[in-house]
Amino acid sequence: MNRPIHRALAALVAALCLAGCTVGPKYQRASAPAATHWDVAEPWRESAPKDALGKGEWWSVFHDDDLAALEKETLASNQTIKVSTARLEQARALAAVQISTQFPQLATSPALERQRISGNRPPNSTIAPSGPITQNNFTIPFTVSYEVDLVGTRRRSIEASQASYQSSAADLENVRLIITSEVAADYFSVRQLDTQISLLSRTVDSSSPAPSIPFPKASTSSIPVTMADWPPASTSRRKRLCSPPPALSSFS
Q1: Which DSSP state fits 204?
Q2: CA–CA distance from 86 to each of 78, 92, 95, 103, 165 (Å)?
Q3: Global confidence as pTM
Q4: Which of 136, 154, 215, 236 could cross-link 149 (Cys pair, CB 3.0–4.6 Å)?
Q5: CA separation for the pair 103, 44 (Å, rounded)
């Protein structure tokens, strides 16, 4: 009479335990209304980001050795890149730990104990101790455990750790791209300023002061100005300035 009741209670307790261990349904990405096709005019196009892929040495297209040296030095010593690299290594280690939970766990803790009992110890029985005793104890226990993933807890943990690892890899590549592009932009800005400074320096060096035109001294006498009063100039210029006009020379 009591057996059916006990079985029902046991089934109820088992069902409650299983219900308490569930982690919910499988994650499904929320659906959002989106157009099936985008009409994008040239030169625009739909983006297809691939953040986790390495960008490579993209600055090599400029064929500039100084820029390449600066970029390599930045990748080796920039602290922001080092922080992102450390986060990637941490995410990789956590993902490896979660994946390892799929396999049986083997544990051991060997121990060695050595003790020496004095020969002057008090007797524990009617037999007197004959001398000192040395005892060695070796213990090598093994423990094997495996947890069956009935409700998907382990699978969800593995998926979360892998997603975190992929996100860290994408963050690292984006940080590298941002830092290297900033270095290249600053480098070309400095080169442009150097070119402008050099151009201005050459312009200043090649320019000369405007030539001054000397004028003859004013004469207080009625004697007209002769060629000797003019500053040195070419002979043809002096003759042209001091000779009368052609129309007046015919009346002289």
Answers
A1: H
A2: 13, 10, 14, 27, 12
A3: 0.55
A4: 154
A5: 50
Judge residue 91's burial from the number of C-beta atoms within 10 Å of its C-beta, 0-12 exposed, 13-18 middle, 19 or more buried.
buried
Q: Which two tokens stand for residue 229?
A: 């009063």
Q: Could you give the C-alpha distances from 20 to 7, 13, 14, 225, in angstroms and in order? A: 20, 11, 10, 123
The three-point CA angle 15-18-20 to 5° equals: 110
Per-10-residue mean pLDDT of the chain, 252 residues long, equals 66 62 65 75 76 79 93 94 95 93 88 84 71 86 86 88 92 92 95 93 76 57 50 48 47 38
Count of CB atoms situated within 10 Å of the CB of 179: 17
**Strands 105-108 and 133-139, how do they pair?**
unpaired
| H or E stretch covering 102 | none
Cα distance between residue 147 and residue 185, in whole Å? 55
Contact 112, 141 (CB under 8 A): no
